[in-house]
C-alpha cells in the first residue's frame, strides 16, 4: 500500500502577518480619530449650547427686572461689579400731595389701582438721582415716605403717611410710585458667576466691568448696557445687550 501523501495546510507568511497588522493599525487609528473628533465636536457643541442657554436666561431675567425698575434708582456698587436698583410695586397718578411752600400734612390723594396695600410700602415722587432713592439717612429724604394706611373708597383713594411730610417738588406727569425700601435687587459678578441677590443666575463669565449705566436725556430714557463673555471648554460666547428703562419720573 502506498502511503498517501498528506497535504500540508498553507499558513501565513511573516510578510502577510505584518501587512495585516499594519492595515489593522491604520484602521484603528482612523476609527479612533473619527471617534475623537466626533466626541470633541459633541463636547464643544454641548458647551456652546450651555453657554448660550445660560446667557439667554440671565439676560432675559435682567431685562424683566430692569424694565420694572424705579426711574433713576439704578446704580453701580462694589467697584462697578454690581448693579443695584429698586423694583416698582405699583404706580398711579396722584391728584394732591403737599409740595413746598404748602403746609406739611400726612394725607395724599391718588387714583385707585389694583394691588392690595401692605404695611411695608413707601411712596416716592419724582426721583431724579439714586440719592433720592437711597438717602444717607431716611430722615433726610424729601421724596420717599412710609405709608400707614390707604382708604380704598371710590375712584380716588386717600393715602395716610406715617408722618406729616412736604415733598420737594411735583412730578411733571403727577406720577407716584410704591416701593419697599428694604427690598432692592442686586446683580453681581463674583468669581466668574452672576448672582441675583446671592442666587446663582449664570456661570463661566470671564470679564470685568459687566454693567454700564447711561443716564436719561431729553431724547431718551436711561439705558443699561451689559457686557458678558462666557467661556467653557475652549468655547467663547460674547453678549452685549442694551436695556432701556421704560419708566419715567
Automatic annotation (TrEMBL):
It comes from Colwellia marinimaniae. The keyword Metal-binding does not apply. The keyword Transmembrane helix applies. This is MSHA biogenesis protein MshO. It holds the Pfam family N_methyl. Keywords: Membrane, Transmembrane, Transmembrane helix. The chain crosses the membrane at residues 12-35. InterPro entries: N_methyl_site (IPR012902), Pilin-like (IPR045584).
Amino acid at each position: 500500500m502506498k502511503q498517501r501523501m498528506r497535504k500540508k495546510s498553507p499558513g501565513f507568511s511573516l510578510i502577510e502577518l505584518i501587512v495585516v497588522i499594519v492595515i489593522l493599525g491604520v484602521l484603528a487609528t482612523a476609527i479612533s480619530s473619527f471617534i475623537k473628533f466626533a466626541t470633541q465636536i459633541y463636547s464643544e457643541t454641548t458647551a456652546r449650547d450651555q453657554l448660550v442657554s445660560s446667557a439667554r436666561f440671565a439676560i432675559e431675567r435682567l431685562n424683566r427686572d430692569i424694565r420694572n425698575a424705579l426711574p433713576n434708582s439704578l446704580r453701580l456698587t462694589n467697584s462697578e461689579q454690581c448693579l443695584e436698583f429698586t423694583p416698582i410695586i405699583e404706580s398711579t397718578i396722584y391728584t394732591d400731595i403737599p409740595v413746598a411752600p404748602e403746609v406739611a400734612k400726612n394725607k395724599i390723594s391718588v387714583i385707585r389701582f389694583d394691588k392690595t396695600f401692605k404695611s411695608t410700602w413707601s411712596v416716592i415722587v419724582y426721583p431724579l438721582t439714586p440719592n433720592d432713592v437711597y438717602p444717607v439717612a431716611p430722615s433726610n429724604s424729601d421724596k420717599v415716605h412710609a405709608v400707614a394706611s390707604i382708604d380704598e373708597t371710590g375712584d380716588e383713594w386717600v393715602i395716610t403717611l406715617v408722618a406729616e411730610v412736604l415733598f420737594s417738588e411735583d412730578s411733571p406727569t403727577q406720577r407716584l410710585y410704591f416701593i419697599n425700601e428694604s427690598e432692592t435687587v442686586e446683580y453681581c459678578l463674583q468669581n466668574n458667576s452672576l448672582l441675583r441677590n446671592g442666587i446663582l443666575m449664570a456661570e463661566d463669565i470671564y470679564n470685568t466691568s459687566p454693567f454700564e449705566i447711561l443716564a436719561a436725556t431729553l431724547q431718551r430714557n436711561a439705558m443699561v448696557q451689559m457686557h458678558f463673555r462666557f467661556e467653557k471648554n475652549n468655547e467663547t460666547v460674547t453678549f452685549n445687550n442694551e436695556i432701556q428703562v421704560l419708566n419715567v419720573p
